[in-house]
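Intended use. Records such as the Flavin prenyltransferase UbiX entry shown here are meant for training and evaluating sequence-to-structure methods. They are not intended to support clinical decisions.
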Amino acid sequence: MTLEAKGIFTVGITGASGAVYGVRLVQELLKRSYKVHLVLTEAAWRVFKEELLLATSNRDSVIEELFSGYDGQLHTHDLHDYGAPIASGSYQNDGMIIIPCSMGTLSGIANGASGNLLERTADVMLKEGRNLILVPRETPLNQLHLENMLKVSKVGAKVLPAMPGFYHLPKNMDELINFLVGKALDSLGVKHDLFTRWGDKR
């Protein structure tokens, strides 16, 4: 029996370092019975192999391994599937997040390129006045990176850099990941208890 989705989100994962952030976010959304439209770039698959040590020769098996067993609904889309529902502003979509967001994808969005489904869907979110969150993971930042962040911010996107906090006294890598994913869920308006908030008891 498929539960009715609480809401609908689009998640993009690009080739920036930090693929685990995107994976964890999708898992948390599915755990909470949301419908997720997932778009991965070719470079994201390379990072899955290098950082998550996944055998990416069979991509369907990787998706099954990472995201099966949850109550939510997962729909994956090819990067160049312009017929996907998320490519249209008429499709109801509660928000979109690209986590992590490469500087190349940021540039494409900032300049309205719509060169692939990820960029097109981001453009749709902006033109429809919907929630768009970009999670860049790059250091150091050059002037073009900063200018592109400012450009997307001016037209309604939220820039949420992958900068973990330490005031919750993380004890391991998992808690650092959960902090950033929790901040992303906050921006999407999704309730969670992934980290101890400032002022709460540790």
